[in-house]
Write a sequence for this structure.
């Protein structure tokens, strides 16, 4: 009996939170189907003059929809690079002790703490010198600074949950290190890889300052394209809201794919 | 538990990470250090000034008040988001379509670009055309985030709670799922209370993910920029001017590269110090916990 009552309280608490989480998003979706005039002049829970115009604007104007393409390209590059360099490093941190290991681990974390505002100019100079301005790889590389430490951190946690006996048994069975890593170890920590991939995707997808500074035309990301809805003639709220709704979709698809990794498959020890 | 073997060859495995991060981290950091000890009058005229900018930064009373506002803000961010995130994780369904649906809904706010978050809340909070503002007005609260400093501060805080609690919830949820059923069975046999299960099983098992969650939220809330910039522009007055805002005003607004560089180094060291203290404290608490369990 007690359990049922508890479940009821849990459901109510969770529902209240989900309501709180969804209200601003509902408002954004609501705005995206309104005209600008309606948004600024009246308070309406549902659009009075329902319109698809804002979405049509985005899907017919290359300078808008290419923003999504550009963002997806550099986010994908960043996620792949982050994971491929973080995997061996996380393995090293979880399996071995070596000179300076703890210091290096903490130093990696400190890279997430650099305030972006003033590092913009050095970044700009560095990437101009390297001839990488306005390319997708520039943004992908710049975002490594906060994604690689996070990926190493998360993956190290998952790897430490796998008993070391598994490694040793594999070596006794004659597996080479690369073969063991790909065939045996990776499947064991695929949950961690899923979670790390989601976080890398998410942080790179929503970052604005660096992405905007390092691009101008060819690789301009959607987050930067959106800022042009602010103009002298006033805000284009409706198009911004529609663009905002569309930015959620790729991430929602990613989380749908990794949801099972987050929900289960953590049976091995600590995360 | 076996000791980890000592092997310096492991450096080869972390080398790719070092190269990637160093490219984007050490060179820019050195540039900033370089600026911080010079007076840059024009691109080709610069004078070495030593620690002058650092002294100036440390004595800047506006910086002190921005730092104090920042510490209060980050404190409340952690005080609300960590317990709330854990509570949500405990309430989330474990299996079935409900679990998947809840996960996706919870994660939605994380996926919205930060400038859009600010813009949406800008409308959402207006009492004439926004849902939040209008509801508060209906309840008889004279709410205005543009003219009342306290309302502005609370709006930024609630926006941050809305935006970032899911991060803590997702991490805590992943941590909870890693606890084998055997632990719960043992607790049931012992007749442990709900609180005892939480305190002695769930919380210690979530420790490593909570360390990640707390540190991430601390760092990121200390660097919060885009959302309050769009929502309130740091105002009214300077009630929501946090450190990044103030730094950007200096760096971009007044174009004082030297002082701004010194400022950002001091800023960086403050975050570093706080994270270091917190990191060690959480690691030690965790270790102490484990010892008491084995005893």
């Amino acid at each position: 009996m007690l359990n049922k009552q508890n479940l009821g309280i849990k459901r109510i608490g969770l529902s209240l939170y989900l309501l709180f989480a969804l209200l601003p998003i509902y408002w954004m979706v609501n705005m995206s189907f309104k005209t600008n005039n309606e948004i600024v002049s009246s308070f309406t829970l549902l659009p009075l003059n329902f319109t698809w115009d804002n979405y049509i604007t985005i899907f017919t104007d290359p300078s808008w929809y290419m923003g999504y393409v550009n963002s997806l390209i550099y986010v994908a590059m960043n996620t792949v690079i982050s994971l491929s360099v973080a995997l061996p490093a996380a393995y090293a941190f979880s399996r071995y002790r070596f000179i300076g290991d703890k210091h290096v681990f903490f130093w990696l974390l400190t890279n997430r703490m650099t305030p972006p505002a003033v590092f913009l100019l050095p970044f700009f100079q560095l990437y101009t010198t390297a001839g990488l301005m306005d390319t997708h790889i520039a943004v992908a590389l710049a975002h490594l600074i906060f994604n690689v430490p996070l990926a190493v951190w998360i993956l190290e946690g998952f790897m430490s949950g796998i008993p070391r006996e598994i490694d040793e048994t594999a070596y006794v069975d004659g597996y080479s290190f690369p073969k063991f890593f790909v065939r045996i170890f990776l499947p064991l920590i695929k949950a961690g890889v899923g979670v790390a991939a989601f976080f890398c995707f998410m942080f790179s997808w929503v970052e604005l300052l660096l992405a905007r500074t390092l691009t101008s035309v060819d690789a301009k990301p959607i987050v930067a394209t959106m800022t042009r809805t602010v103009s002298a003639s006033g805000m284009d709220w409706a198009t911004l809201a529609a663009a905002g709704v569309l930015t959620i979709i790729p991430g929602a698809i990613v989380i749908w794919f990794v949801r099972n990794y987050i929900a289960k498959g953590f049976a091995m020890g600590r995360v | 538990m076996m000791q980890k073997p000592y092997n310096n060859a492991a450096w080869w495995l972390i080398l790719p990470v070092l190269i990637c991060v160093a490219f984007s981290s050490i060179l820019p950091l050195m540039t900033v250090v370089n600026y911080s000890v010079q007076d840059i009058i024009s691109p080709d005229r610069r004078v070495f000034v030593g620690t002058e900018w650092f002294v100036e930064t440390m004595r800047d009373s506006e910086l002190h008040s921005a730092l104090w506002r920042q510490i209060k803000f980050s404190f409340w961010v952690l005080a609300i988001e960590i317990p709330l995130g854990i509570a949500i994780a405990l309430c989330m369904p474990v299996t079935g379509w409900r679990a998947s649906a809840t996960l996706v809904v919870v994660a939605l706010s994380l996926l919205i670009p930060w400038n859009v978050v600010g813009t949406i809340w800008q409308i959402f909070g207006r009492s004439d055309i926004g849902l939040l503002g209008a509801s508060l007005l209906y309840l008889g609260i004279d709410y205005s985030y543009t003219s009342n400093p306290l309302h502005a501060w609370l709006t930024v805080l609630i926006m941050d709670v809305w935006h970032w609690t899911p991060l803590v919830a997702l991490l805590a949820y992943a941590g909870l799922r890693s606890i084998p059923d055997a632990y719960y069975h043992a607790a049931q046999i012992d007749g442990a209370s709900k609180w005892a299960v939480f305190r002695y099983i769930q919380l210690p098992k979530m420790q490593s993910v909570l360390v990640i969650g707390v540190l991430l939220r601390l760092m990121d809330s200390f660097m919060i920029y885009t959302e309050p910039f769009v929502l309130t522009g740091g105002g009214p007055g300077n009630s929501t001017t946090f450190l990044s805002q103030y730094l950007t005003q200096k760096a971009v607004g007044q174009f004082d590269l030297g002082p701004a560089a010194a400022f950002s180094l001091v800023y960086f060291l403050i975050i570093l110090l706080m994270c270091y203290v917190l990191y060690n404290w959480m690691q030690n608490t965790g270790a102490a916990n484990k010892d008491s369990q084995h005893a």
About this structure: The radius of gyration of chain A is 23 Å. The longest strand of chain A covers residues 230-231. Residues 62-95 of chain A form the longest helix (34 residues). Residues 60-263 of chain A form a domain with the MetI-like fold fold (CATH 1.10.3720.10).
